[in-house]
Amino acid sequence: MSMHTDKRAAIGVFDSGIGGLTVARAVHKLLPREHIVYFGDLLHLPYGSKSETAVVQFSLAACRFLCSQNIKLLVVACNTAASLAMKRIVSEVDVPVIGVVGPGAKTACAATRNNRVGVIGTSRTIESGSYRSAIAGINPLIMVFEKPTPLLVPMIEEGWIGHPVLRLVLQEYLGGFITSDIDTIVLGCTHYPLIRREIEEVLDGTKTVQVVDSADSTALKTKRLLEENDLQRPPGKVDTLKVWLTDSTPGFRVVAERIMGKESIDVSLVDSGYCSEGLRYSASDRSPRHE
Ligand code: DGL
């Protein structure tokens, strides 16, 4: 990997949709001087129910595009992509790459007191066993209880946060954790922090379970990596958050502004096409039609 040395370059953050903005927000909070370029693959969302081949192909195309946007570091802010495509991404891009699974697993291991940890995520993330092995690598004594929760991402993208149907779905999904006696649950999908309150309410029906996600620990890892490589952006004007999307949805800006606060967000669409390497994106001057 050839090290990027442009300190003014951006931090690239990638997710299949809006969930990765929860990680972008944590990075922005910790590193307010840094410019962030975000890629949301709304066209192919949800990744969590697609085949591994498809997730790898979409992830590589997204990461290659971000690398064409002068980034010095890449955050794979999608647990599904980090679970299935991390090795391929690391081998193909020429900037340091941070995934969200390792930081999330580390946070959970530090949080549990009774060594019983629950993990929820998309079907592909849970099937991949990425959290199970990351947690075992840190503390093999921890018992991991996993549950795929595939209906949550579509509901969040639809803006059904606080909706009574969401509560029923959560009761169904999280009911099994009550008998597992977990004291910590990992939100193994970057969309889930958006419904953290609802998750806590459903779990608190029985006992207090600590709810952890990977946003803050991923941001900390990002900070450390920039420091280690002497890549911190020098003081100066802070750019707006640049967002590239593969498609637009009516709710994107509303939810994005809710996540990122009053930051001004500059949203553009990419064009997609195929070349000998497969799927390829290029910058377009088309604005999302829902703006
Ligand atoms: N936010 C993504 C994750 O962390 C996935 C959502 C999806 O595309 O299924 O897994």
Characterization of this structure:
The protein is α/β, with parallel strands linked by helices. It folds into 2 domains: 10-99 and 217-286, Rossmann fold, CATH 3.40.50; 101-214, Rossmann fold. The chain has 11 helices and 11 strands. The strands form 2 sheets. It has a 7-stranded mixed sheet with strand order 4-3-1-2-9-10-11, with helices on both faces. Strands 6-5-7-8 form a 4-stranded parallel sheet, sandwiched between helices. The longest helix is centred in the middle third of the chain and has 17 residues, at 164-180. Bound molecules: D-glutamic acid (DGL). D-glutamic acid (DGL) binds at residues 15-17, 19, 45-48, 78-80, 122, 125, 153, 189-191.
Quickly count the helices. Answer: 11
CATH architecture call of the largest domain? 3-Layer(aba) Sandwich
Helicity range of the residues? 40-55%
Query: How far do the termini sit from each other?
Result: 38 Å
Rg, nearest Å: 18 Å
Report strand order across the widest sheet: 4-3-1-2-9-10-11
Order of helices and strands: EHEHEHEHEHHEHHEHEHEHEE
> In the CATH hierarchy, what is the class of the largest domain?
Alpha Beta
Helix/strand-derived category reads: alpha/beta
Outline type: globular
The parts where pLDDT drops under 50 for at least 5 residues are none
Which cofactors or ions or other ligands sit in this model?
D-glutamic acid
Number of domains: 2
Number of strands: 11
Q: Look up the CATH topology of the largest domain.
A: Rossmann fold
Average pLDDT taken over every residue:
92
- Describe the sheet with the most strands: 7 strands, mixed
Q: In percent terms, what proportion of residues is strand?
A: 15-25%
